[in-house]
Amino acid sequence: RGIGIGTAGGGTRAAVIAEVQVKKSTGKITVTQIYTAQDAGLTINPGLVENQMMGAAVQGTSRALLEQVRFTKSRVTSLDWTTYPILRFADSPAVTPIVVQRTDQPATGSGEPPTVGAPAAIANAFFDATGIRIREMPMTPGRVKAVLKAAGAS
Question: Tens digit of pLDDT for each residue in 129-149?
Fold first, then answer.
């Protein structure tokens, strides 16, 4: 397990915990579960905020594992879902959202704070699983294998 923290304008804060599996032979990181808690002060519509948090956690997972803009010296070359892959529903982790309801505080807004914390949580879970830090994203199988090899753990 690993933890990451995210913030957004207005003072909204989110914490993210990720559970991962690492297959050393292929370099594949699978995020199996994300827990995310968000404090946005007074939350007017908790169900809607939970939906936003779940989408943000999956988006952060996608960014951490797959998404990368590619380009040449003259243009962007990642122009479609083949050359700019995103996480598919079948590969999305289970997400447990927790809204911290603070009726004594003003609403600070909600959006995508879990997106920010998810990559750090996944990288920290990778460290927990392997004892090795990964510091570059996306955490593709090739990068994971290279990090493991450099640490003598492949």
Answer: 999 999 999 999 999 999 999
Spatial separation of the C-alpha atoms in residues 119 and 9, rounded to whole Å? 19
pLDDT at 7: 78
Q: Is 126 exposed, middle or buried (0-12, 13-18, 19+ CB in 10 A)?
A: buried
Q: What is the pLDDT of residues 45-73, one digit of tens each?
A: 999 999 999 999 999 999 999 999 999 99
- SS3 of the chain: helix, strand, coil, percent, to 5: 35, 25, 40
Beta-bridge partner residues of 6: 14
- Tokens 């996608």, residue? 62
CA distance 61 to 93: 8
Question: How far apart are the C-alpha atoms of 14 and 88, rounded to whole Å?
Answer: 24
- Please give the C-alpha separations between residue 81 and each of 28, 57, 84, 86, 92, in angstroms, as whole numbers: 20, 20, 5, 7, 16
Rounded distance between C-alpha atoms, residue 52 and residue 5, angstroms: 16
CB burial readout 60-88, b (16+ within 10 A) else e = bbbbbbbbeeeeeeeeeeeeeeeeebebe
DSSP 92: P
| Cβ atoms of 34 and 118 closer than 8 Å | yes
